TrEMBL record:
PANTHER family: D-ARABINONO-1,4-LACTONE OXIDASE, L-GULONOLACTONE OXIDASE. InterPro entries: FAD-bd_PCMH, FAD-bd_PCMH-like_sf, FAD-bd_PCMH_sub2, FAD_lactone_oxidase-like, Oxid_FAD_bind_N. This is FAD-binding protein. Residues 29-227 form the FAD-binding PCMH-type domain. Keywords: FAD, Flavoprotein. Gene3D superfamilies: 3.30.465.10. It comes from the Bacteria. The keyword Zinc-finger does not apply. The keyword Flavoprotein applies. It comes from Sphingopyxis jiangsuensis.
Length: 503
């Protein structure tokens, strides 16, 4: 499993075209053909460690890359060595004697860091298992998605990083196998991966969400649940103001009964036009979990409502005709949103993985978010719509819901979270509107965090104040994982330095 160099030093642009690395030397870590996962990992750890030493000797910073999806430029670093991990993507079953006593091996899978969420999902489902949450797309690598706290809108769950039970991290000092204090994998297994066992809750909580600053993540042990089916309901409904109070209070059943089925929903998402949000129909999506059965009629991704791209296609139009913004957004929402399956349509079912989409590149995408305490939702929503009505900007506003996520730097840090996403065409006007939303929340004294992977204008002072004691714990964990400051600086970039994560 060699690390191979890809061409000469040059430019590299990330997948969605939001950032470019200048003078980057690109390398790829590729899977080998070892029969056992632990042997693959031992070889990868050796290779990556040597590669890091070579980068250091060459006086270059390094940047490990997943699928390169992040639009925040968190994956961008110039004059450095990039390590593409996408082809380091094998997944392995875990046997009963690979784990510590009391650990359910059948629920775990060993995943090489570059495996896509889609690939992990497929492998699990083939074994009768499933992820319990993920982002709306599945074209990210598992390690990259976890590195930034990716999430969806499963109302009773946290982020994708919550699936992680153990992590192999390589730095120039060697490979460390980081687990919670109680331990997960057997000593023999860990030794065979060429790593030193580090069983420590504080380090694990930092490593679950490393933001690319804690070394090269080479492997993960991912936990799963028995596979299940979801029944989607997707419709356009004019949402009543009072319904936002139900969402704020976590009365998802009541919301569902009013707009879809009178059942507890597992997933609730609302995409709304911030111009006259209560007069124009919102796009609602609900998922209802059902027990697995082999004979469910297979549906296409489109029938399951996976993916919605028309918003970005209409981006330029929105920017060119600002006076028609409200109407155009509504038109875009209608075009981009599959009609149904609504309540009266014949039900369709799919597994968790079937309802996700890998996405085409979204050129000229603007995408930002704030995560707030769900209790503040109704008030914050009014404030946000007020900002758009006064100052313009062409984004739709998406409301998603989740519980507190794991990882010290998880943006979903409230007990119950509402995540408000702003997606639309990239333009100065749209960026300014988001900046005004943030100003407004600050002026109102509303606590909120921002997504690591989106264009959220974060800086070091803000990261420190948003995460407080958890930020200090994360920094202390980083310094224990990578005690040598020169090794920590190897993972520096302008973006991560700006966030105060790589000092
Ligand atoms: C179309 C689209 C839809 C999205 N939908 C959602 C959504 O529904 N919910 C949500 O929360 N987010 C969403 N996102 C954000 C997305 O999930 C994150 O950007 C995610 O980090 C991308 O994963 P990646 O593999 O592309 O990582 P990259 O962008 O390649 O990297 C992200 C960070 O992780 C680091 N990293 C990656 N791999 C490793 C490794 N092996 N070792 C160490 N560090 C590593 C990188 O250095 C970088 O700092 C979306 C983004 C797009 C573009």
């Amino acid at each position: 499993m060699p690390i191979v160099q890809l061409g000469r030093e040059g430019r590299w642009t990330n997948y969605h075209g939001t950032g470019t690395c200048e003078a980057a030397t690109r390398f790829a870590l590729r899977s080998g053909d070892a029969e056992r996962g632990r042997d693959e990992l031992a070889a990868a750890a050796r290779e990556v460690r040597e590669w890091l030493a070579a980068a250091q000797a060459a006086g270059r910073h390094v940047r490990p890359l997943g699928a390169g999806w992040s639009p925040s430029n968190i994956n961008i670093a110039s004059h450095c060595w990039l390590l593409h991990t996408r082809r380091f993507n094998r997944c392995f079953r875990i046997a009963g004697d690979d784990v510590r006593p009391g650990v359910d091996a059948a629920s775990l899978m060993l995943v090489e860091a570059g495996a896509l969420v889609d690939e992990v999902s497929d492998k699990l489902e083939a074994q009768g298992r499933s992820l319990w949450t993920s982002g709306a797309g599945n074209g990210q690598t598992f390690a990259g998605a976890a590195a930034t706290g990716t999430h969806g809108s499963m109302v009773a769950h946290g982020g994708i990083q919550d699936h992680i039970r153990a992590i192999q991290i390589v730095t120039p000092a060697g490979a460390q196998w980081v687990e919670p204090t109680a331990g997960v994998m057997s000593d023999d297994f860990i030794a065979a991966t060429g790593s030193q066992a580090v069983r420590d809750d504080a380090l694990f909580a930092a490593a679950q969400l490393p933001v690319g600053a804690l070394g090269v993540v080479t492997a993960l042990v991912v936990s799963s649940v028995p596979r299940f089916l979801v029944r989607p309901i997707q419709n356009l409904r004019r949402v009543d103001r009072r319904a936002l109070n139900w969402l704020s209070a976590g009365e998802f059943r009541r919301f569902s009964a009013a707009y879809a089925l009178d059942r507890d929903p597992d997933f609730v998402q609302m995409i709304v036009n911030p111009y006259k949000p209560f007069k124009r129909p919102a796009m609602l999506r609900f998922l209802y979990r059902e027990p697995w059965r082999d004979d469910y009629p297979r549906a296409t991704p489109g029938e399951l409502g996976a993916g919605y791209d028309a918003l970005s296609l209409l981006g330029r139009l929105l920017d060119d005709y600002p006076w028609a913004r409200g109407w155009l957004l509504q038109f875009a929402m209608k075009l981009g949103y599959a009609g149904g399956p609504d309540v009266q349509d014949p039900p369709v079912y799919g597994s968790w993985g079937e309802g996700l989409d890998t996405h085409r590149p979204l050129a000229d995408l603007f995408n930002a978010s704030v995560t707030i305490d769900r209790a503040d939702l109704a008030y914050v929503f009014e404030q946000i719509c007020g900002v758009y009505a006064r100052h313009g900007g062409s984004t739709v506003v998406t409301l998603r819901f989740m519980e507190r996520a794991q990882g010290l730097l998880a943006p979903a840090r409230f007990a119950h979270n509402a995540v408000i996403d702003f997606d639309g065409p990239r333009s100065q006007r749209t960026a300014d509107a988001y900046a005004r939303v943030v100003e407004r929340l600050d002026a109102e004294g509303i606590a909120f965090t921002r997504h690591w992977a989106k264009s959220c204008n974060l800086d070091a002072a803000r990261v420190e104040s948003d995460y407080g004691e958890d930020f200090r714990r994360w920094c202390a964990a980083r310094d224990r994982l990578i005690p040598d400051p020169a090794h920590r600086r190897l993972f520096a970039s302008d973006v991560l330095d700006g966030l105060g994560l790589t000092c």
